[in-house]
Amino acid sequence: MLATSTLVVLALDGDLDPLREAYLRAQLATLAGMPAAVVDLSRVRYLDSMALTAFVRLTKEFTARDARVAWVVPPQTNARGLFRLAELDRYFAVAETLETALAALNAG
């Protein structure tokens, strides 16, 4: 995890399924109170509805306190397919690379 006083970059990895729910919750909890964050899913091999639900919850929490969160979801990944299927790519700030996500947060 890369962190400054105003931004955290959280890179998740592996499979985000019910067996790793505690891992995901602990990782997302590190973003509490931050004014801006990037969640990088580049190294996530698989995710399911449990992870998507956690991501929606996190985004709502950030929005409620006027904070910003961007998501790195590379094309041709399981995560991108699920983001499209759930139409999260329409409501989340989704970028293909970390650099693009950081630029979007800095511009906003």
Key structural traits:
single chain; Transcription Regulator spoIIAA; globular; 108 residues; alpha/beta; 4 helices
How does this structure look, described?
The chain has helices at 21-29, 49-64, 78-85, 98-107, and strands at residues 2-3, 8-16, 36-47, 68-72, 93-95. The protein is of the alpha/beta class and 108 residues long. It has a single domain, classed as STAS domain (Transcription Regulator spoIIAA), CATH 3.30.750.24. It has a five-stranded mixed sheet with strand order 1-2-3-4-5, sandwiched between helices. The longest helix has 16 residues, at 49-64. The model has no long low-confidence stretch (mean pLDDT 92).
Low-confidence stretches: none
CATH architecture annotation name: 2-Layer Sandwich
H/I helix tally = 4
The CATH class assignment is Alpha Beta
Helix fraction by DSSP (H/I, runs of at least 4) = 25-40%
Largest sheet: 5 strands, mixed
Which structural class matches the secondary elements?
Answer: alpha/beta
Briefly note the CATH topology name.
Answer: Transcription Regulator spoIIAA
State the distance separating the first and last CA atoms: 22 Å
Please write the string of helix (H) and strand (E) elements: EEHEHEHEH
| Major sheet: arrangement of strands | 1-2-3-4-5
Write the layout of secondary structure elements.
Layout: E1 2-3, E2 8-16, H1 21-29, E3 36-47, H2 49-64, E4 68-72, H3 78-85, E5 93-95, H4 98-107
Parallel strand pairs: 2-3, 3-4, 4-5
Antiparallel strand pairs: 1-2
Tell me briefly what this model is.
Helix content is 40%, strand content 29%. It has helices spanning 21-29, 49-64, 78-85, 98-107; strands spanning 2-3, 8-16, 36-47, 68-72, 93-95.
